[in-house]
Amino acid sequence: MEETILWQTFLKGDRASFEALFNRYYKPLFRYGHKLIHDQQLVDDCIQDLFFELWTGREGLSEIGSVKGYLFKALRYKLYRAARKDSRYDALDEATQAQWESSHESLMIAEERDDALRKRLHHFLDQLSPRQREAIELRFNNQMSYEEISHIMSISYQAAVNLIYKSIKYLREHMVSIPTLLLSLSWYGYLIK
Asked: I need a labelling partner for 132 at 20 to 30 A (CA). Which of 25, 38, 66, 168 fits?
């Protein structure tokens, strides 16, 4: 089951979805946490706490763009707080503390950059014609083929290709800071959220 569907059903109180999320992400979270702090028990405790807090606080949670990203960020925060409280980690060396803090700063900077990119993308998407926006929406947000787009929009296959090509060309010309790769992938749905 797709992670966003699992998350949505978990938010509604579905225990099976919650267990599926736990089973899907426990090992990757543990590997990630163990790279940050070489204390298996602390990492396990933080993961258990994280999922306990998710279950008990689910009414206060909302939709998120990436379940995996959310869980990794939450675990990182829990580990950092736990390490600061634990007397064994009182002597975290300055380099380790700087790494935690710089990583957090990097994450915040990346989030701000993504937000600015999202706003910029919205601006330039608004400059497209309604048919161009529809074609882009179908192609990138709904992952439809050119044949499906031509059928839905009642245009020829070539017209669908041309419409999307011209739309992407316009966006590339006006959003030069976005790597070309992003425009060829399914980034549209991620950025719109």
From this structure: 66
**Exposure letters 126-145 (e unless 16+ CB within 10 A, then b):** eebeeebebbbbbbbbeebe
User: Which tens digit of pLDDT belongs to each residue from 167-180?
Assistant: 989 888 877 554 44
> What CATH number does the domain located at 114-192 have?
1.10.10.10
pLDDT of 137-167, one tens digit each? 888 876 778 988 888 888 999 999 999 999 9
CATH class of 3-92: mainly alpha
pTM: 0.48
Q: Residue ranges per domain, the chain?
A: 3-92, 114-192
